[in-house]
Amino acid sequence: MLAGQQTWKFQRQPHIISTATIVGPDEALGPLKDSFDKCYDELEIYEKSWEKAERRLLSEATSLALSKKNLTADDLQIYVGGDLLNQIITNNFVARELKIPYLGVFGACSTSMEALAIVAQLVSTGAVKKGMAAASSHNCTAEKQFRYPTEYGAQKPPTAQYTITGAGAAVVALDGDGPAIEAATIGRVIDLGITDPFNMGAAMAPAAVDTIIAHLNDMNRTPKDYDLIVTGDLARVGHPIATDLLLKEQVPINTTHFDDCGLMIYNIDDQQVEAGGSGAACSAVVTYGHIMNELNKGHLRRVLVVATGALLSPISYQQGESIPCIAHAVALKGKGVE
Amino acid sequence: MLAGQQTWKFQRQPHIISTATIVGPDEALGPLKDSFDKCYDELEIYEKSWEKAERRLLSEATSLALSKKNLTADDLQIYVGGDLLNQIITNNFVARELKIPYLGVFGACSTSMEALAIVAQLVSTGAVKKGMAAASSHNCTAEKQFRYPTEYGAQKPPTAQYTITGAGAAVVALDGDGPAIEAATIGRVIDLGITDPFNMGAAMAPAAVDTIIAHLNDMNRTPKDYDLIVTGDLARVGHPIATDLLLKEQVPINTTHFDDCGLMIYNIDDQQVEAGGSGAACSAVVTYGHIMNELNKGHLRRVLVVATGALLSPISYQQGESIPCIAHAVALKGKGVE
């Protein structure tokens, strides 16, 4: 494959006609609080298990994204979603409620943009009229599955990231208000040999850079064409690495227009979130909340969301494998932008 | 959504230009032995862990599907794959070898046709020129993850199914020899309340029936239009249930043209495989081996492959949840068939 053949350019650009974001208490303490539709005041989300808590977040986000535009699930021909849990069980159960065609996807924390890319492609080509993309994560479902039982209260090193609790959903249609989806760049798996699951930002940074470069090449653009290029969840360790790698590759990235959802969602210095946020919902709730608002208000004209994922499993790293990483990018354009 | 809006009809029909299938020793004892490209004589696949064994199967299947047509991964613009393992780790690692854009998907044992449907859509619409779909499973990676440590040698009830060991891959392009892909029907999650993970055939049967009916309605076809309608892995318990449900819904299914990959792959009465085969590779290796051969030889003209998946996780059933199920169907047409 030639470099720069990773991008689907949408000839008919679909629109994100509705979004919804629901988060937990830690995210409600962050600077993006007002951009979320609903913030729960307790991590249990009034459910009896962490898994049920995550499911409730996703269920409510998907329902709200529909009801905001007086739609029901029956108005959609596809639901594409995924999460971090084994067998993406949160999405499977929410798809059961929706009762519409369902494609389950897994790209770890890149799932948000993987799902949006697929829905946009299906809408753009007319395979479906309307579709919904969503992703979810919960701090405690992720902790218990990937690390230790939550009751341990195990300490983590400062390079570790804090899985955000939340869910984000987006309804996509060919016609309608809302930001247009110009293109999607599908990432390749990049693995430079990092084996420490407590340093996923560093592991994921090269994947983000690979996808950003592929996107710019495919679109014949430079970083200046975007008001904001935002990575998914590289956080405090990974994001500066990505900046360095881009500059080393002669990509003129302007750090004031290059940010990270995992850094934006928390008050990093004041909240106990180690290096910053992560999780499949991290890029989902920042994109479908704050970034959508800014695009709709005209504060941002073009944004490239580069969701990053660490494709490890507990078994793979226990067996000594390094961490394969990936990043999928979606280019969004505000209303009226040519 | 109206009934019958689940199908992507491909205006430009892509072709399966190459396939490869690799299996383990149990599958080599079954009636389809000669249709597989390679049969391993030991379940360990000459590797040191079950996970590495499964990865080797998928790695070799994807390589072989390419080399049969003198292609390399660089000739592809997309790889879509999934498996049963947590975080679909087998596919993540194989995607790392391929170094091309990758969409990870999860539909349990329906993954094979979920992946093929997505690749076909991308090729048909010109988003990519060539792509590959694949799926894998290994009896022992599945056993240790979903049931008990393999060392226990735990007994299973006769309704249980036997996860097949293998991997199947298909290369899809717009032009070329090989069966055409006419359409793909994306399933909805169906859950009639079965909670027994040792009876997944019965749990999945209603999902298969739902997708078959949607497909026939969407395509304005009857079962007679297909020489073969084949479910993924309903096996000895689930397949007769699907037949009964179809007849109850007034679908004139002819049982001599209605079969199941999980029944076809083994000599059910002679091999110790309980109710029959299952696993993401089950429908993949039967479709990409035996069915491809029959389509290429003109013995079968039209085939509908209905891959079925049980979307449970060990945590979900331990928490008392029932088993959400899904089925994705792909319609294949032999060379020269109008």
TrEMBL record, chains A, B:
<dbReference type="InterPro" id="IPR016039">
    <property type="entry name" value="Thiolase-like"/>
</dbReference>
<dbReference type="Pfam" id="PF07451">
    <property type="entry name" value="SpoVAD"/>
</dbReference>
<dbReference type="InterPro" id="IPR038369">
    <property type="entry name" value="SpoVAD_sf"/>
</dbReference>
<protein>
    <submittedName>
        <fullName>Stage V sporulation protein AD</fullName>
    </submittedName>
</protein>
<dbReference type="InterPro" id="IPR010894">
    <property type="entry name" value="SpoVAD"/>
</dbReference>
<dbReference type="GO" id="GO:0016746">
    <property type="term" value="F:acyltransferase activity"/>
</dbReference>
